[in-house]
Write a structure and sequence with these properties.
single chain, mainly alpha, three-stranded antiparallel β-sheet, two-stranded antiparallel ribbon, 15 helices, 5 strands, globular
């Protein structure tokens, strides 16, 4: 459930690219100047490299992507190269299509069709079909949304009705586009829509991390002129920091101390640790009986720390 929560959260910041979430690996997450985590990944369908700026949410810990990644990593009990190792990763045939004369709206919408629909409408392939790791990720996201829609209704929590995997793309893109200070090409580039004519038109005016960070700030709820800070462990004195490091080793046991392929960078782990500590009291108030709270409490016992200490650290 924590990995699925991170999946839904990250989809907003990736402008709804479910297939690309399967390409998010631990050793491609970095702390960037400007107060963000920057995730680099190889796009599933185009094999081009893409990046996304992820900021700490200043308003709501439950919608913060960095907090969601921290929880998902803490609850990941076995080493994995993937940030979200719960996703299905089968293979299926992708048929080449002619996109030179295809309208942009159709190019964007075709990506959300089911494999069966896409195959039935595809032209006869001119060459061998290409293999790609594109499982039923859209169906997976839709199942998660349907599952939690029922739970939210039962608990009286407001949730937009009719959400699907496609909602993240349109919703996030429209949210970013509502700010007049954000250029449309920046949104296209952040969304990875560098296809054919779009790529030719905008290839030379987009692609810098500064532009991507501008879009990322908007999606996270920051003013575009703000300088968002990342949660940090830098302000702790050496004695307290040593105790935090002991707790960190327990909580992130599946994400550090392994080969580079299986590990997050040390500065990234520090950001996730600081974020988890910062919002621990919030999570405790939200659901004190949750598996996450039990895991943190067990780790505290193992390092002989107390809840009073972690509350003070927060």
């Amino acid at each position: 459930d924590y990995q699925d929560a991170a999946l839904l959260n990250i989809l907003w910041f990736l402008l709804g690219r479910p297939s690309d979430t399967m390409c998010l690996v631990k050793n491609q997450v970095a702390v960037y100047p400007g107060g963000c985590l920057f995730i680099t990944f190889k796009r599933m369908k185009s094999a081009s490299y893409q990046g996304a700026s992820i900021f700490h949410d200043p308003n709501d810990f439950s919608s913060c992507p960095i907090h969601a990644l921290a929880l998902a990593t803490i609850m990941q009990l076995t080493p994995s190269e993937f940030l979200m190792d719960q996703l299905p990763r089968d293979t299926q045939e992708l048929l080449p299509t002619e996109i030179g004369e295809t309208p942009l709206r159709e190019l964007l919408d075709v990506r959300t069709r089911s494999p069966a629909t896409s195959n039935s409408e595809s032209p006869t392939p001119k060459g061998p079909a290409k293999k790609a790791t594109v499982p039923g990720i859209h169906a997976y996201v839709n199942r998660v949304l349907q599952k939690w829609s029922g739970v939210c209704q039962t608990e009286g929590t407001n949730l937009t009705p009719g959400l699907s995997s496609h909602s993240f793309r349109r919703g996030a893109a429209q949210n970013a586009n509502s700010d007049s200070k954000i250029s449309t090409p920046w949104i296209l580039d952040h969304g990875g829509w560098s296809m054919s004519a779009v790529s030719k038109a905008f290839n030379y005016i987009v692609g810098t991390t500064q532009e991507d960070q501008t879009v990322g700030k908007s999606l996270a709820g920051w003013d575009l002129k703000a300088s968002p800070p990342l949660p940090t462990l830098d302000d702790f004195d050496p004695l307290v920091l040593h105790r935090i490091r002991l707790l960190q080793d327990r909580l992130f046991s599946a994400a550090k101390g392994f080969t580079e392929r299986l590990s997050l960078r040390d500065d990234v782990v520090d950001v996730l640790t600081a974020t988890a500590i910062l919002h621990y009291p919030d999570m405790l108030r939200l659901r004190p009986e949750s598996l996450y709270i039990k895991r943190v409490q067990e780790a505290l016992r193992q390092v002989q720390a107390t809840e009073a200490e972690i509350t003070a650290w927060s």
